[in-house]
Specification:
alpha/beta, Tn3_Tnp_DDE_dom, transposase activity, Tn3 transposase DDE domain-containing protein, 2 domains, 8 strands, about 150 residues
Length: about 150
């Protein structure tokens, strides 16, 4: 029976359609075939990529190398989690988003909700060309709009 069907609402709250995903670095022996050096963490290891639902219920996790794509891990978790949850939105950090990620999540019918750490250098696209006044709140930012 999938974990989501035996969830106790008085402990975990009602189920949602939203999750967040991110990875965590774990040190590992260099003889492990998946171990790689990670510059940010300053050591060898592997990454565990987690998909966590509201109130910290992990719905999916996967082992990945330090250099493998977080975008593919994010999509993989949304598609392969073993619960009855239908993911409608997935929150990610800056590493879990790209133009390709937005395209695939749109085709797969869920919303990618990234934290855009470097929004000043992001290229934003309007849904329809010629709507210069439709997004007035973005006008005061120095963002390239296409």
């Amino acid at each position: 029976m999938p974990m989501y069907e035996i969830r106790l609402p008085h402990i975990w709250g009602e189920g949602t359609t939203t999750c967040a995903s991110d990875s965590k670095h774990f040190g590992a022996w260099k003889q492990n075939l998946m171990t790689q050096y990670h510059l940010r963490y300053g050591g060898r290891g592997v990454m565990i990529y987690w998909h966590v639902e509201k109130n910290s219920t992990c719905i999916y996790s996967q082992l990945k190398t330090c250099s493998s794509s977080e975008v593919s891990a994010m999509i993989n978790g949304v598609l392969k989690h073993c619960t009855s949850m239908e993911v409608k939105k997935n929150y990610v950090n800056s590493h879990g988003q790209s133009e390709v990620a937005f395209a695939f999540t749109h085709l797969l019918s869920f919303q990618l909700m990234p934290r855009l750490k470097r929004i000043k250098v992001q290229k934003l696209y309007r849904p329809h060309a010629g709507q210069t006044d439709a997004y007035s709140n973005l006008g005061h930012w120095s963002i390239k709009m296409c």
